[in-house]
């Protein structure tokens, strides 16, 4: 069983944000795209339109001089469980590779198993690259989506069952306790027919 997709390690070792040799004079000439079908080098926006139009392409972005990818672009391709994510510019992202972090001496609750970087949540890895190393070192996790499908199915099934039971209970209560008719005590009664005052002589 293949625990790491063949294109992922190539992606993690690719240099992004260089100027495209073909479209260097254009405004959007930085090479921040990667094609999963071709699995070669990074390319720019214009190369995508001309050479990778119908291919599966993901866009790499930058945060604090480090490469990140949006979760929404890879979660249908990889099991990203155990990797720390961050919200940057209203989008949830994860880092491609580990980031060196000087030791501060402060006690932290959660750290990356591979590089020791502090994490926000109780997770195992700070980046996709560290998860690759963890898979090769321990083999107790993977990027294959099949690994999470069964647990996800169980969660959905359990949720559906609970929802059905709740709806059944609500329906039973409605049958046992019919709605109370509105009270007539507070209903306004129409006043008598108004009479016009007689004209004075």
UniProtKB/TrEMBL annotation:
Protein name (database record): Transcription repressor PLATZ family
InterPro entries in UniProt: PLATZ
Organism of derivation: Helianthus annuus
Domain of life assignment: Eukaryota
Pfam families recorded: PLATZ
Region (Disordered): 154-201
Biased composition (Basic and acidic residues): 162-172
